[in-house]
């Protein structure tokens, strides 16, 4: 039997992938993060499925549930918010399953930063303005950041930054980025992206912290900082540019 790490998406139940929903529908056991995963998704599980909310479970107990389900001959859905590839705590679960000899697979999901960009109606990479997106967070009570990955170091790149798990520390974020981006740099915060209670704040580094505190945003939000958020004057991308030479399609009037 197999453990499936499934990305549930950013919040809206209909943003799970088709593969994710189909996998969920055949798993007799589902472990889910109750504080983050929409309850509506659990309706995709078989009617007799064992449902385990992991919100209050530590890694040992989660692993024990996964191993027990495997030994009982059941496929297991481990439902994570967003996409398992970033800030999901999947790596340590995989490591333990490797040690236990339990096979697993990963079904990607829509990440929070993508849902935030959709809410803002912005492409995060703009020709000649910015072609790099850095996904990061700040170290506070959680695991320390590795050397060289502090905000000051990342900010020196000038790239667009997407910060997860950082809304409650917005004052610190602004203070560390101001010297590198300037007070007029566009900034945005999207809380509860894709959900019915989605909140979008737009501004600059000069005023975004005040907006966040006024709105009372402290969790389930991403902070985005960078010039591409407000870019308006830029050339068309080379891919679709009318100036790009293109071979004539067979049968077209210009074809030999």
UniProtKB/TrEMBL annotation:
Pathway: Cofactor biosynthesis; adenosylcobalamin biosynthesis. It comes from Streptomyces javensis. Gene3D superfamilies: Cobalt-precorrin-4 Transmethylase, Domain 1, Methyltransferase, Cobalt-precorrin-4 Transmethylase, Domain 2. Keywords: Cobalamin biosynthesis, Methyltransferase, S-adenosyl-L-methionine, Transferase. It is an enzyme of class 2 (transferase). Its EC number is 2.1.1.133. This is Precorrin-4 C(11)-methyltransferase. One of its GO terms (biological process) is methylation. SUPFAM superfamilies: Tetrapyrrole methylase. Residues 2-208 form the Tetrapyrrole methylase domain. NCBIfam families: cobM_cbiF (TIGR01465). Belongs to the precorrin methyltransferase family. InterPro entries: 4pyrrol_Mease (IPR000878), 4pyrrol_Methylase_sf (IPR035996), 4pyrrole_Mease_sub1 (IPR014777), 4pyrrole_Mease_sub2 (IPR014776), Cbl_synth_CobM/CibF (IPR006362), Siro_Cobalamin_biosynth (IPR050161), Uropor_MeTrfase_CS (IPR003043). GO terms for molecular function: precorrin-4 C11-methyltransferase activity. The keyword Nucleotide-binding does not apply. PANTHER family: COBALT-PRECORRIN-4 C(11)-METHYLTRANSFERASE (PTHR45790:SF4), SIROHEME SYNTHASE-RELATED (PTHR45790).
